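ok so i was messing around last nite and threw this chain in just to see what happens. nothing serious, just curious
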Amino acid sequence: MDNKNSQLATFGGGCFWCTEAIFQEVKGVEKVVSGYSGGNAPGKPTYREVCSGLTGHAEVVQLTFDAEVISYEDILIIFMTTHDPTTLNRQGADQGTQYRSVIYYHDDDQKAIAETVVKEVAPYYENPVVTEISPLDVFYEAEDYHQDYYRNNTEQGYCNFVITPKLAKFRKLYAEKLKH
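result:
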């Protein structure tokens, strides 16, 4: 991290391609890396292993962001409102523990902010929020072909039918937070 105001945030809200595409457009986010976290299988997992559901890992993104431009709280609010934090181990058609809603905090301040944000957004949902809040143990970067997935595959079916509409909704809701 070159910038002295740079911080890390790590979370998962379903398929990392969707989450990555959203945060690549957020002002103050310097880098977005898709990866895996939260599991207990030994060694660096592969996508195939994570998709099996047997590793315990979730698909996550790790952001490097400039805290002078965007706060961790604002990042979490965007995260909590651009996926469904009320469905356990599922986002849309994607099912399994690897698609769980989870915030991995890097320190006690992030833990406190995450707990506050989850409590603040909960009343806006009809069903209970099931987002897990856990300490980050380890982050494994996903394979190269998962990085910048949406940007590199916009015509792919999943991108067209799932990510493009999600991005359109995000852009409308958070126009003031977009990079120009």
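not much to say yet. The radius of gyration is 15 Å.
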